Amino acid sequence: MNTERAPGAASVAVLVRDGVLPMELGLVHQLFGTARDPATGDRLYEVTTCAPRPGRVRTDADFPIHAEHGLEAVRAADTVLVPASHETDEDLRGGDLDAELAESLTAVRGRVASICTGSFVLAAAGLLDGRRATTHWMSSNTFARAFPSVKVDADVLYVDEGPVLTSAGEAAGIDLCLHMIRADHGSAVAAEVARRTVVPPYREGGQAQYIQRPVPVRETGSTAASREWALRRLAEPLTLAQLAARDAMSVRTYNRRFREETGLTPMTWLNRQRLDRARELLEQTDHTVDRVAAETGFGSGTSLRQHFQAVLGVSPGAYRATFRGR
Q: Could you read off the pLDDT of 150-165 as tens digits, one per residue?
């Protein structure tokens, strides 16, 4: 495969500070760095590591890293990612951020995103004023007190506010990066990146950060079988009673267990799977909107259009034109 940078590759700058979490730095390089043009194999992003001052940067592990670039890389980037630094983030308040760093972040012409408590940096720079944002759930109260002008949503994986995006704890950074790649290049490219790194291809940003029972307890049952069964039957008019019956539970028990395991209601989860499949069909086939609706269980083109508008803010036709055009 061709690993040369494509002429149109977008620049991604990862801004690290002393105390940075190596996992968050690495996941940005891994995910954006493996995104390839399906037709040519060229890299779609050029990822660089930068710091407020080039040179040695401490991590929260037992090893340092070297940042070759300074803030000039932030100002020139199409996308800037700010991983967490647990040394300093929660001490930040409005006006506390280094002036040059704040000016560099506000000068970014593309988008700026944070992982975990990196959101404190974005807020301190004024980028989140009047916007929705999230951060690690354990830091959400501190964040809300420090930045009362920001609308904190501590119950989601990530928040996309257009030019500014925020995500929850470390693993949610994976979801955010895949979401950004998908927004840029469509579901096929994002799914291939996910396959290469062996992570789930897509989790909706509104999914709960903290799930009470992430690993089902064997003796009390699981909803995994019904979820697998439903994914093979997205075109069918599935009901809550049918799903509960697959796992031999009452509807009430099933509903409670499903939320404990996924953070979503069964029907919300099912509609998100259908919408995800509809996106793929719009990107990868010439099916009419009505046929896409039929194959994904929405029933009619009108219903599909309503779901697209409610969740994505665009029509199926506009979505197809954007991604098929690329």
A: 999 888 889 999 999 9
